[in-house]
């Protein structure tokens, strides 16, 4: 999945005619059912032959290679012609294509930068309409993730593929040495709020002055922001980054200043060393941070655990996949997508690529409940499944990462240069307002 959000789509909106799909049966609309191969062959072939070719762009590890190849086995006569990009390059490719009025592929996976594409609904098939009729399967997915693919005017441009629920990762050995609880349920109870978490951080640092509870303030802000009821722009396009919920998230991060190690990214060598050396005891991160932690801190294998994050569940990342207006085989494409995102394939994608399921049936699959040696043989996914089901619906505006970055950069000044928090918050709001004015006041 992408861990870097897409830059703003600054091209002028193009006037496009809405795509109307052909009529037909929708017997395989349920993603947990295996579609019948006979239903998919030769429907709407572009060249009059029996073969249907669906084009697709994707990035490394967003979709399994073997899954793409299996489409032809499940749907004789149907082939996906996929073009692989790096995580960063696909963003630029989509930007360039939109700006130039070029042609997008039939199938388009999207990371959390789907928020940027919701402003171009006419570029996509509305999956609520026939022949897709996606309302029939809506209740099979976690609600908040489904809503991420909906436009403000109620169209659906994509089906959920995977999600990134957040929990707190913590080093149980460091907790034990400081006299703190070590079992996940006990830690969750003792650190259920940020106030409680900072109280625990104080105890840890009294017992071990060289150890910090958390990694850096930007991480705290992203976690706290994801627990708020709204982001910085509401569904009607109003600027709300100057309201109390953003102040609360910002000041929650500020309150954590005495308890952070420092830094500004989870990808730095310094961050990895702080975890591997036992300098940092905990951090809030998405489920896909499990392999990142293992790579960063191999010497701490068996010491880490996962529990509920202070303040509650959030989400970072996760992909969806849509059908663009260029697709001439909408019914076939939809059948392919519902098969690719069915329970069995989501569970297999978790096993192979670490893509956490978006289907409720996949989240409930016993195959997810396995012990992980790195986490002391804990069934870590138990807490990520719980988080996935607890997350509330949360509207992400276009270019949301730019707004977040304004606040994160100011927090970095508070963290490293002792900038006054009130001044930093005011500057962050002003910077966010300037971004808003460029985006919405054109």
TrEMBL record:
<protein>
    <submittedName>
        <fullName>Extracellular solute-binding protein</fullName>
    </submittedName>
</protein>
<keyword id="KW-0732">Signal</keyword>
<dbReference type="InterPro" id="IPR050490">
    <property type="entry name" value="Bact_solute-bd_prot1"/>
</dbReference>
<dbReference type="InterPro" id="IPR006059">
    <property type="entry name" value="SBP"/>
</dbReference>
<dbReference type="Pfam" id="PF13416">
    <property type="entry name" value="SBP_bac_8"/>
</dbReference>
<feature type="region of interest" description="Disordered">
    <location>
        <begin position="24"/>
        <end position="47"/>
    </location>
</feature>
<feature type="signal peptide">
    <location>
        <begin position="1"/>
        <end position="20"/>
    </location>
</feature>
């Amino acid at each position: 999945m992408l861990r870097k959000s897409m830059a703003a789509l600054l091209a002028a909106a193009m006037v496009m005619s809405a795509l109307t799909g052909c009529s037909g049966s929708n017997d395989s609309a349920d993603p947990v059912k295996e579609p019948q191969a006979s239903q998919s062959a030769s429907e709407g072939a572009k060249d009059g032959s029996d073969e249907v070719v669906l084009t697709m762009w994707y990035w490394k590890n967003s979709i399994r290679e073997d899954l793409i190849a299996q489409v032809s086995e499940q749907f004789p006569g149907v082939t996906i012609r996929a073009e692989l990009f790096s995580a960063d390059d696909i963003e630029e490719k989509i930007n360039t294509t939109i700006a130039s009025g070029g042609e997008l592929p039939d199938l388009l996976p999207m990371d959390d930068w789907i928020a940027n594409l919701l402003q171009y609904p006419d570029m996509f098939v509305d999956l609520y309409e026939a022949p897709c009729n996606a309302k029939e399967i809506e209740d099979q997915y976690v609600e908040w993730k489904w809503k991420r693919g909906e436009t403000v005017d109620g169209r659906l441009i994509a089906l959920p593929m995977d999600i990134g629920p957040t929990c707190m990762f913590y080093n149980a050995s460091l907790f034990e040495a400081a006299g703190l609880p070590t079992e996940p349920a006990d830690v969750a109870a003792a650190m259920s709020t940020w106030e409680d978490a900072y109280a625990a951080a104080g105890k840890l640092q009294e017992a071990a002055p060289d150890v910090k509870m958390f990694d850096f303030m930007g991480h705290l802000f992203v976690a706290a922001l994801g627990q708020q009821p709204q982001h910085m722009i509401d569904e009607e396009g109003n600027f709300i980054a100057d309201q109390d919920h953003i102040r609360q998230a910002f000041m929650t991060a500020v309150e954590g200043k005495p308890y952070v190690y420092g830094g500004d990214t989870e990808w730095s060598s310094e961050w990895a060393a702080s975890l591997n050396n036992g300098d940092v005891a905990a951090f809030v991160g998405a489920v896909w941070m499990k392999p990142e932690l293992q790579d960063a801190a191999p010497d701490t294998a068996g010491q880490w655990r996962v529990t509920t994050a202070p303040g509650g569940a959030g989400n970072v990342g996760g992909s969806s996949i849509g059908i663009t207006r260029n697709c001439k085989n909408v019914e076939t494409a939809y059948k392919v997508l519902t098969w690719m995102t069915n329970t069995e394939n989501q569970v297999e994608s978790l096993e192979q690529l670490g893509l956490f399921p978006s289907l409720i049936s996949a989240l409930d699959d016993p195959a997810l409940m396995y012990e992980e040696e790195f986490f002391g043989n804990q069934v870590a996914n138990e807490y990520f499944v719980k988080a996935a089901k607890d997350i509330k619906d949360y509207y992400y505006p276009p270019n949301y990462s730019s707004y977040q970055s304004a606040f994160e950069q100011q927090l970095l000044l508070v963290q490293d240069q002792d900038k006054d928090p009130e001044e930093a918050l005011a500057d962050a709001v002003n910077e966010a307002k300037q971004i808003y004015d460029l985006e919405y006041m054109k």
